[in-house]
Amino acid sequence: MSDVIAHRSGWAAVLRRWPTALAVGTAAARLAGGSSDGEITALAEVAMLLPLVYLVVAGIRRRGASWPTLGALVVLYVGLRTLDVVPTPAVLAGVSLAVLVWGAVSGDLRSSGAFRLQALGVLGFGALALAALVAEPDLGRYLVAAGWLLHGVWDFVHLRRNAVVSRSYAEWCGVFDVLIAAQLVFLA
């Protein structure tokens, strides 16, 4: 009987931490898929996408939109990579710029500290990702790893403060980001 209770409580713990379990599973699946020549480029591009989720959610002021926003941006990203017509970083930078302009026109850039902070995040993480894309490959790998690690810290700060995005998204993203950074540094 105690084994059944322990088993159930183990599953209850996993269910409470489902974002962490999802992050570990996603990172493990990525690792199992092996690496490719375009890995650093793809990870640099995704490093531009993740802070954009925060910026959009801060702009619309709906934490519950965290996962749908991620989904929409992932669909955009996959479509851009599949079609290969326009450089993905250019489109992501353009979308970021459009959201920043929207925030400036609506007054959020002046009045909302959360939006301003996310704007700085998009600019900082975007600059790091773009630097990684133009750097020599080994340096690019470490720049991308630094960006992912720093974004993981960003996520955990937001999780701790319970701010901007949903807690489940911040938890998932923080764990996933740190695992990706570790894969880049230690499994290169």
Shape type: globular
SSE series: HHHHHHHHH
Multimerization state: single chain
Percent helix, as a range, is over 70%
Helix tally equals 9
Total beta strands? 0
Structural class: mainly alpha
Which spans of ≥5 residues are poorly predicted at pLDDT below 50? none
Features:
188 residues; mainly alpha; 9 helices; globular
Describe this structure in words.
The chain has 9 helices and no strands. By secondary structure, the protein is an all-alpha fold. Helix 3 packs parallel to helix 5 (88-106) and helix 3 (39-60) packs parallel to helix 8 (137-161). The chain starts with a helix and ends with a helix. The model has no long low-confidence stretch (mean pLDDT 90).
Topology record:
Blueprint (H helix, E strand, L loop, with lengths): L1 H15 L1 H15 L6 H22 L5 H18 L4 H19 L1 H4 L1 H22 L2 H25 L5 H20 L2
Could you give a quick summary of the protein structure above?
The chain has 188 residues and is an all-alpha fold. The protein has helices spanning 2-16, 18-32, 39-60, 66-83, 88-106, 108-111, 113-134, 137-161, 167-186.
